[in-house]
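Re: that backbone. Tokens:
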């Protein structure tokens, strides 16, 4: 297949969904522009004349990377993996309300299975807002997740997770997180101090937050990019179901690693949605 091909990822190897790849010719004129898919892959369909081109990969919150590509006589160039690092000196974005954009965000959790492998899941329905205060440490977060939107790629397993053994989504349809305090952890890193309500219980949960920066998108809106992680203990939320499959080996690990990749849009509503 002709065209330019590349996989765009961050320094941790994670796909940068919706990153943009721009190809310019020797005169500096743009000849093609394409957006990465959900796996961070860009595959342009245009066949380019043989020669040298400059290819720039960019994503909101990351420093752009430019490379020289040699297009062959077949009209193609395979750039492999392009790795983007965070913007230097990224801090919390400007004060105000930032609305979480679920279409460009990810809420995921990983549990250990049989002590030797992992089960990965994600929630597909969620939303919320981030209020950045003039005093950054007084910033706040409110987020809600639909518990029944869990997706691990296996329908039988998802039904079990939704049952009373785990999330009990019939009685507890929502998972909420609220925080009203943030503390600096150095550089672009922050600690968010909040409370997580899940399975009918409320527990204090801190998020390790990295602000990757902010900037305009293609539609003129201003976006900010965050990454956050934490670890939850299942028994803190009375989800104690397990099976012992061998001496000393449980089917499911006792902890969950939670990873959040969040894009938020400046304002109280997402582009294309009605304002209150």
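Recovered sequence:
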């Amino acid at each position: 297949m002709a065209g330019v091909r590349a996989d765009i990822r961050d320094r941790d190897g994670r796909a940068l969904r919706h990153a943009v790849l721009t190809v310019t010719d020797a005169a500096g004129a743009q000849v093609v522009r394409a957006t990465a898919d959900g796996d961070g892959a860009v595959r342009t369909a245009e066949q380019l004349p043989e020669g040298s081109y400059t290819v720039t990969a960019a994503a909101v919150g990351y420093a752009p990377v430019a490379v020289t590509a040699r297009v062959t006589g077949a009209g193609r160039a395979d750039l492999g993996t392009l790795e983007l690092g965070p913007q230097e000196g990224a801090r919390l974005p400007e004060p105000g309300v930032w609305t979480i954009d679920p279409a460009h965000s990810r809420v995921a959790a990983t549990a250990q299975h049989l002590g030797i492998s992992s089960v990965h899941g994600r929630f597909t329905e969620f939303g919320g807002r981030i209020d950045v205060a003039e005093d950054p440490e007084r910033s706040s977060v409110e987020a809600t997740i639909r518990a029944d939107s869990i997706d691990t790629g296996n329908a039988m397993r998802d039904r079990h997770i939704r049952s009373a053994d785990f999330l009990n989504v019939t009685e507890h349809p929502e998972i909420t997180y609220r925080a009203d305090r943030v503390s600096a952890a150095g550089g672009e890193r922050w600690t968010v101090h909040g409370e997580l309500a899940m399975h009918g219980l409320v527990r204090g949960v801190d998020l390790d937050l990295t602000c990757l920066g902010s900037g305009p998108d293609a539609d003129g809106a201003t976006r900010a990019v965050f990454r956050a992680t934490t670890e939850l203990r299942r028994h803190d939320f009375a989800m104690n179901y397990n099976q012992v499959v061998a001496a000393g080996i449980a089917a499911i690990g006792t902890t969950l690693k939670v990873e959040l990749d969040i894009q938020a849009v400046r304002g109280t509503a997402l582009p294309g949605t009605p304002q209150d």
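The chain has two domains: 3-84, 96-266. The CA atoms of residues 140 and 180 lie 4 Å apart.
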